[in-house]
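For reference, the entry.
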Amino acid sequence: MNDKIEHLVREAESDINSRSKKNAKKDRSQIRLPKFSVAMVIWLVAILLAAFQFESVVSTFSEPTENEIQSDLEGILTTAAGTIRSYEISNGSLPPLLPNPAIRGLVKYEQINAVRFRLEATIGDVTVELDSSSLHPNRIQGPQ
């Protein structure tokens, strides 16, 4: 009788194992995920980064336009004029040199009289000046 029970148990286990394998195969066959190689994933990430950073990537390989240079110089001169005005408020007179040493090599500072000054900066063919009597810097050289 023990042999019959063992035989039945083995048949039941065999049946369960075969059904489990069939179900596992069905589950795997129903869910098919695309298989990506590492190279494909790297290319996909590179393409996505390039798409989102296209302007930055292009500007890395190209020179800035004259309008971009002019805009940058105008910002520098406006900042320099602000530091000069701050110095004047603190000390009661215009400074003998630009208060910001980081831009002294780029910006030419000229004191016209006790209350008026002129700033000038040049990069390439673009020259921008700011006179303290005006509110905005303007381009003085080259096409505008």
